[in-house]
Specification:
One of its GO terms (molecular function) is ATP binding. It is a single chain. With 447 residues, this protein is an alpha/beta fold. The protein has 4 domains: 121 residues, Response regulator (Rossmann fold, 3-Layer(aba) Sandwich); 172 residues, Rossmann fold; 76 residues, Orthogonal Bundle (Helicase, Ruva Protein, domain 3), CATH 1.10.8; 52 residues. Helices cover 46% and strands 13% of the residues. Strand 1, helix 1 and strand 2 form a beta-alpha-beta unit. Helix 2 packs parallel to helix 3, helix 14 runs parallel beside helix 16 and helix 17 crosses helix 18.
């Protein structure tokens, strides 16, 4: 990653040292944000994820190692460098064993600082070349989504199977395509199929191919998608809906790396990376016997969970603007954006259908708008006509929980004791709820 693009977060309760380090690093071309406590650092990372964190070791309330452990837990892959005036070999060994990237002792030598920062940035996922074209189709400024993208970039370089989970309409195929583009297979075929959209025999034929005369109407031999994707990536969408009989055949292909077309006696070698996705609870499907456990572990070497649109609400204005430009260009329309009132309505909506629903609403608004700016009334009409989109019970409950927690935290200016009392929960349970929904109390404190 080039210095001009890297964003560094400095954490120290010594304001004069913050100024000094900030000036040094900015002179090198880095973009630097400074905060004076671990809590402030976590709040900032939640709203804008940096490329690297440099933190003092000894600070009041939350020290550098405690901050590191929180960062490691919430934002895997984000490197941390620890700075301290109390450096010792045992401290450094302990810190690096736990995963701290580097340990620098004050007074900090300028060249050592630059070398440590450059080294950390070279080894982070985002720095694997400056080319971000692999993720161009995923529009986001959300820290939650950026974390998923960091993980996606890391797994892309290997050939492991990835299971992408998340609610319907959250962009699972886009993420699969991004992983493919970031991989060494990026210039080979990317082929997607929805396993729940076809009847069993047709799905089997599509995946594995068939020989001539394999069944009534099979007038010609048909190459399956495994063969078509050879050397590239096969994306199995809604894998949780695949019939059990086909799950057995898919498992055999993954184990043997050979595919036998329907009605054929000949096996064909295939070199295909498998990415899959589902919105179903696969654990429950395994318990009920609807999904094979051995296949699940083959597919779920790495799991990436995509957030719902309500979990990345800060992306709604950005996505809406991007989609308007995209739809207008495609339809040669003069529509350029939303009025402030219309945008406010979009931001305040729950989006049970996630990004897919937002796309539908934007397309309808662009089609019906008689002016360059989409009005609040058009948005209201589009949302009202889309009420048939319902979330699952679990998604609806999670959305309500998150909205409720945000509301009580705003009412109490981030006072957890008061908020927990209003919610009828003890502090421990309340903190667990906040962690489940990635909510930082510091964001709601009165300034």
């Amino acid at each position: 990653m080039s210095a001009g693009k890297a964003h560094l977060l400095l954490v120290d309760d010594d304001a004069s040292l913050l100024r000094l380090l900030s000036m040094r690093l900015e002179s090198r071309g880095y973009r630097v944000t400074t905060v004076e406590s671990g809590r402030e650092a976590l709040a900032h990372i939640q709203s804008e994820r940096p490329d690297l964190v440099l933190s003092d070791l000894r600070m009041d309330e939350m020290d550098g190692m405690e901050l590191f452990r929180e960062v490691q837990s919430r934002h895997p892959g984000l490197p941390v460098i620890i700075l301290t005036a109390h450096g010792s070999i045992p401290d450094a060994v302990s810190a690096t064993q736990q995963g701290v990237f580097s340990f620098l002792t004050k007074p900090i030598d300028k060249d050592e600082l630059f070398a440590a920062v450059d080294d950390a940035l070279r080894q982070t996922p985002a720095s694997a070349g400056n080319d971000d074209a692999w993720r161009d189709e995923i529009v986001t400024r959300s820290a939650v989504m950026e974390q998923v993208l960091d993980q996606a970039r890391m797994v892309a370089v290997s050939d492991v199977s990835v299971l992408i989970t998340g609610p319907s309409g959250s962009g699972k195929e886009l993420m699969a395509n991004a992983i493919h583009r970031a991989s060494s297979r990026g210039n080979r075929p990317f082929i997607a199929i929805n396993c729940g959209a076809l009847p069993e025999q047709l799905l089997e034929s599509e995946l594995f191919g068939h020989a001539r005369g394999a069944f009534t109407g099979a007038m010609h031999a048909h190459e399956g998608l495994f063969q078509a994707a050879d050397g590239g990536t096969l994306f199995l969408d809604e894998i949780g809906d695949m019939p059990l009989a086909l799950q057995v055949k898919l498992l055999r292909v993954l184990q043997e790396r050979h595919v036998r077309p329907l009605g054929s006696t000949r096996s064909i070698p295939v070199d295909v990376r498998i990415l899959s996705a589902t919105h179903r609870d696969v654990n429950k499907a395994m318990e009920s016997g609807d999904f094979r456990e051995d296949l699940y572990y083959r597919l779920n070497v790495v799991n990436l969970r995509l957030p719902s649109l309500s979990e990345r609400a800060e992306d709604i204005p950005l996505l809406a603007k991007h989609l308007v430009h995209q739809v207008s260009a495609r339809n040669q329309s003069s529509v350029k954006g939303f009025s402030p009132e219309a945008l406010s309505l979009l931001v305040g909506y729950g989006w049970p259908g996630n990004v897919r629903q937002l796309v539908n609403v934007v397309e309808q608004c662009v089609a019906l708008s008689t002016s360059p700016i989409i009005s609040q009334g058009l948005v209201s009409q589009a949302l009202a006509s889309d009420e048939s989109v319902l979330p699952s019970f679990n998604d609806a409950r999670a959305g309500f929980e998150r909205s409720y927690l945000i509301k009580v935290l705003k009412m109490t200016d981030g006072n957890v004791t008061q908020a927990a009392r209003i919610a009828g929960r003890n502090r421990t349970d309340f903190y667990k709820l906040l962690a489940r929904h990635d909510l930082e109390v510091a964001r709601f404190k009165a300034s």
